[in-house]
What we know:
Layout: H1 3-16, H2 18-27, H3 33-47, H4 55-69, H5 75-85, H6 89-102, H7 105-126
Helix pairs in contact: 1-2, 1-3, 4-5, 4-6, 4-7, 5-7, 6-7
Amino acid sequence: MTNRYDTGMQVRRRVLGDAHVDRAEAARTSEDTPFQTLITEAAWGTVWASDGISDRERSMLTLALLAALGNFEEIPMHIRACARTGASRVDVMEAFQHVAIYAGVPRANHAIKLAKQTWAELDKDTN
Length: 127
């Protein structure tokens, strides 16, 4: 593996947590290994590894982009990651307000619904 891959795995674990990454790695197959390598090197080893902006800001941008583009499947994962990146619930809601104005209320509304469901699960797990 490349240095970028190794860096990507470190960043991925820092942001998403060992349990998430371990589950993803256990589900890896020979068919999706090239894709997993690509996202580990490009998303995690390049974009998320950059020190140009903070992990908190990157979480907010990621959540806004996912919502704006209608890629709702990954929103809960990135909501859970906020506990590690420092993006607060207020930060997330601010990002989704931008989505409402610039990408549409229905997308922001659905993203908020997913965030609230994920926060309820997290709150239940901590009680």
